[in-house]
Amino acid sequence: MAKLIEILLGDIYIQSFIIGLILAAFLSKLSKRTNLNEPPLVYYRIPLIGHTWSYLKDCDKLILESREKYGETFSLYVFGQIMTIVGKETIHEVLKKDQDFSFREGINMQIPMHLIFVHLTLTEENFKMVRDFVGGKLKHLISRLQKNIINAIDFHIGECVEPKVISYPRKTLTDIIAIPVANIIVGEECCNNEDMLETFKNLTFSLLKLFRIPRILSFIHPWLHQQIITITLRFGWNPFSKHRNLILNCIKPVIEKRLNDKKRLGDAWVDPLDALQCYLNDPNVAPDFNPNNINYDYIADGIGRLIFASIATTSSSATQVLYDLIERKQLYWQELYQEAQEINKQCNGNELTFNDIARMVKLDSFVKESLRFINPIVTLPHKCISKSYFTFANGYQIPSGRIVGLNFRDTNNDEELQGQNPTEFYAFRHLERNSPATKLERNFLTFGGGKHACPGRALAINEIKIFIHKVLLKYDVRTDNKEIEAKKKIFRTISCASRC
């Protein structure tokens, strides 16, 4: 009996502690006020819930109405915390002031990368490595890139002498994109490994499953939700661990062979063109080219982070471009097909060069317009990391720790920035402005801005253009589902038939 009473008392103490913690968090939010000149907080009726329901149900309406009433800078109460929304005039202050705003810390509050890729301690160096590798070597990678895209198309789609139905285009595009990306990241020796390819295809989706827990506890305090979604990571269960082990098993013998060959051949050694070799050329990772001193875990986590950042975004973007092309087939297909034929004729049906791809100006503009429309309404969360507060040029101030969301609709729907009819899809809008898809501009925020803009954007755009170019020349594509809601577009079925 005494033991039972002790257990019951223990349970009561635990419950009391949890209730006290919840009340303390709630009261601290109610009492938290600042003397800053903060942006106006949009009116809401329901305590705790705030704008969350409207934000999830009809974000477009909420943002547009708030913009009209409060101006381009305002705040919402979403998932238990105040989030400041900035529009076209203020977005670039956030993107360019790295000392005051951090995208990395902002995204970590949603997806805790620092707890997943725990060995990737030199994150800034990893970013620079990607930027320098892609920017400096892309011209030399084009041959391998298109060869692997062609092989992937042949394998996953085929000749289609008889029409072929592709029920899950997004998955097929992921499988196709994984092959050339694997070749560029882990090199010729590893990219054909079946287990490695499966990691490239599935890594992002397996990690995102961990963070599908409803954010109910955020209404009490965001800290509580953070504890729930990270509890498995903090106690040692990491869904990336199995992928890390697989990557390590694949790259270790390759690394050892490369280091031995470099030692044996000396000046005759030629560095392979892939991200794996870039890690080996980093003295912080491979200080003396001794296989026993290589920071293998850092390399594996770096490769994992590259996969996470590249595969899902590129495949979803390529899928969206393909759907937009099919939807507007009568308007643009023939003109883009003629451009593809002309370029193919000029290179005599041989391998495309970097300059050949650059001459796909109509396709480039189409891709950019498609990416402009794929943008979320509010995205790229940045955390204010100023010591105490930050003051925008418009005079509004926000405290350190505040999350700032970028209002892409304010940029995308602006006639001054986009030209006439900004809410309508016009494929050659960017061609007329002489604005390629990789160019960072105030009117195109898909790849971010400032020095931390997406370092792999040129690679992604070239992959998409090569893929669409080959599809135009080889297939006649249509959708089987003619009337489906736009937001479900990614799940449509498509049919491919040979043009021959």
Automatic annotation (TrEMBL):
A Pfam family recorded for this sequence: p450
Domain of life, per lineage: Eukaryota
Coiled-coil residue spans: none
Keywords: Heme, Iron, Membrane, Metal-binding, Monooxygenase, Oxidoreductase, Transmembrane, Transmembrane helix
InterPro entries listed in its UniProt record: Cyt_P450 (IPR001128), Cyt_P450_CS (IPR017972), Cyt_P450_E_grp-IV (IPR002403), Cyt_P450_sf (IPR036396)
Ribosomal protein in keyword set: no
Co-factor requirement: heme
Segments crossing the lipid bilayer: 12-30
Binding positions (heme): C454
Single GO molecular function: heme binding
Stated family: Belongs to the cytochrome P450 family.
Name recorded for this polypeptide: Cytochrome P450
Organism for this UniProt entry: Gigaspora margarita
